[in-house]
Amino acid sequence: MFEGFARQWTPVLPLRRIGSRPQRVAVAGEQLVVWRVAAHRVGVLLDRCPHRSVSLALGSRTTDGDIQCAFHGWRFDASGSCTRIPFNPDLTAGHGRDRRGATALPHRELGGLLWVFTGFDPDTEPQLPETLLDESLIRFTHTETWDAHWTRAMENMLDYPHLPYVHRNTIGRFVRAKQTPDSQLHQEIRDTGFGYDLVPWLDENDPGATLKWYAPNSMVLDTLPAPRMMRIQVYCIPAETDRVRMLLITTRNFARNPAASLAFNRFNTLVLHQDRAVVESSDPVVVPRGAVETSVPTDRATLRFRSWFNRELRDSEVADPRAQRPAER
């Protein structure tokens, strides 16, 4: 399970998009079902009823917060335990309901997001910027799905040299204004506890924007000097095979009127859309091993991510706990 993205914390959806009605969401090739158990509590199960392997997302939430399968009415709580099996009153909790349970996923509700662990025994917690925990900031959230592998989207978000070309009329215009035919791009990469900081500068100009990589799948771009703060964050969430759910979050501490928010939100969404066609055209679909592609010194940041992915995640997986269920007698 979770091949190529095992044992990682990743956001899945904004919490505001999760209601009492069960919904299906894919993470690293696995289908999950999420629903709101109570006002401040979300349930996350593998989207497969243990009885006949149908989608639990086709079911409904009961009055006590359980999810009820649409096929035979089996009920499961947020821990995955089976709480009712119709027409089988002898199967009490002490006599088989628990071993007939669904599979729950470790999850957290942090920074307005639902986080899921792609495994079953986390030994870490989600790493997220402090801005996602600051409710005084103005926030915009946008999601869309691309036909690309998450690694291609992630390395694109860490790639500074493409700005004056892909984003020539948006965020790249500031680089273009300083660029000459003989310009040289410098990049300093500093290892951090969460990934790395990237500080780029052109020729003898002072560094501008600062970029951060939060392993495994997030980029943070700070575009303004203090005391103003404009932060763009993108999560590249692996969904179905070779599809990536792009989660864009922007936060700022100024221009609080609705008209300004509308303008900023449109601009930042446009910047994201400018990357899509390029990323979706990647071949091979997954970032390659070795020297399949030609690289140059200004690719250091993306090569650092590739090296980490190929070493830590490409061959990762976790065992499917459903394969270990005892046979029915």
From TrEMBL:
It comes from the Bacteria. Keywords: 2Fe-2S, Iron, Iron-sulfur, Metal-binding, Oxidoreductase. It holds the Pfam family VanA_C. InterPro entries: Cholesterol_7-desaturase (IPR050584), Rieske_2Fe-2S (IPR017941), Rieske_2Fe-2S_sf (IPR036922), VanA_C_cat (IPR044043). One of its GO terms (molecular function) is metal ion binding. This is Rieske domain-containing protein. The keyword Lipid metabolism does not apply. It comes from Enemella evansiae. PANTHER family: BLR4922 PROTEIN, IRON-SULFUR DOMAIN CONTAINING PROTEIN. The keyword Iron applies. Residues 9-116 form the Rieske domain.
